[in-house]
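REQUEST ID: PR-0412
SUBMITTED BY: lab tech R.K.
PRIORITY: routine
TASK: structure prediction, single protein chain
INPUT:
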Amino acid sequence: MTRSPLHNLVLFLIALSIFGTIVAGVHYAAIDLPMQLANPAPTNDALNDPGACARCISLCGVKIWDSSCTNRCLRSCDCIPGGCPDR
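STATUS: complete
OUTPUT:
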């Protein structure tokens, strides 16, 4: 019994998709994965911790004798969005 051309086409497409999957997996394991491991994502640092700014301002509520406390907190590195350039 001979196979129909449609049957041969379907077998060819299935084989081609399996081959493409294998090539993509080898490419990922050989090239993409080592590059991802060599350049890890940056970690978040605590330099601009919004909690430190809030703690500073909340302590100013306790220091009622120091009227410039809030202004000092707002000028500190913890409350500046970009942080201090010297850090």
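NOTES: The chain is about 60% helix and 0% strand.
REVIEWED BY: pending
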